[in-house]
Amino acid sequence: MCDLPVFKYNPDPVRLGVIKKERTHCPVCQQERAYVYTGPFYTTAQVRGICPWCIKDGSAAQRFQGTLQDYLAIEGISPDPSTPHTINYASDVIDELLERTPGYRGWQQEVWLSHCNEPCAIIDYVGWKEIAHLQEELMPDLSDIQSRWNISQTELQGLLTKPGDIQGYLFRCVKCNKHRLTIDAN
């Protein structure tokens, strides 16, 4: 089996460096595999060497009672159980994102952006150079980032580099293809 599984919300986990071509004996399926998952996995178990196929079918999350994303880091999810979520996701969508989608690596806490009432697909780690042509499309996110970080557009353009101390994470809506952006710092 050499074709990697396809993930709706992370279409190129190899480019993101969370699935690597490296031999592993998967602790879930007990098979020797040519690819290994090296991204985030939220579980109390100490586990390494999970193969992409056990992520795709959900068996890794089930076996180790873990998730591949932080539930509270999904945009629109309220950390307070008494406060309603701002986005009402279908439960199967959340299950797919948490249990069957490779994560990505952020400097601090990964955030999973959404659009059209569904999680977006993570596309790439970016600096300003990689997103300058998307400036108009990303303006709502850029304005929010400038406000939260208390920086100007010019400062953001100078600080956002790939790789760099301030890193961008580019997402794309799985329904309408609109791009979204979030950033964090080391």
TrEMBL record:
Q: Which Pfam families match?
A: UPF0167
Q: Which family does the entry's similarity section mention?
A: Belongs to the UPF0167 family.
Q: What is this protein called?
A: CbrC family protein
Source species: Microscilla marina ATCC 23134
